[in-house]
Write a structure and sequence with these properties.
Layout lengths: L2 H18 L1 H7 L4 H20 L19 H7 L1
Length: about 80
C-alpha cells in the first residue's frame, strides 16, 4: 500500500470511529456554547475576508467545497 492510500485509509477509519463513538458527537455539537462561539467567530472572520476581496455575498458565485468536512460551514454561509 502506497503512502497516499495508507493515509486515506487512516483518515477514513478515524471518521468511522467518530461516527461510532457518541462521545465525539457531543464534543462538536453546536449545543455546546464553546463550539457555537468558535463557529460564530470563524464564520464572522470568513465573511469579513470574503467581503474584503469582493466575494461577499456568495450568491453570484459558483463554489466548490472540497475536503472541508461535512460542508456545514458553506451551507451556513449560503443561508
Amino acid at each position: 500500500m502506497d503512502p497516499f492510500e495508507r493515509e486515506t485509509r487512516r483518515i477514513r477509519l478515524a471518521y468511522e470511529e467518530y461516527t461510532r463513538d457518541l462521545t465525539y458527537a457531543g464534543k462538536w455539537s453546536l449545543d455546546n456554547p464553546g463550539n457555537r462561539a468558535i463557529v460564530e467567530e470563524r464564520e464572522s472572520l470568513l465573511r469579513q475576508m470574503l467581503s474584503e476581496h469582493g466575494f461577499w455575498p456568495l450568491t453570484p458565485f459558483r463554489i466548490l467545497d472540497v475536503g472541508c468536512g461535512t460542508g456545514t460551514t458553506l451551507a451556513r454561509m449560503a443561508e
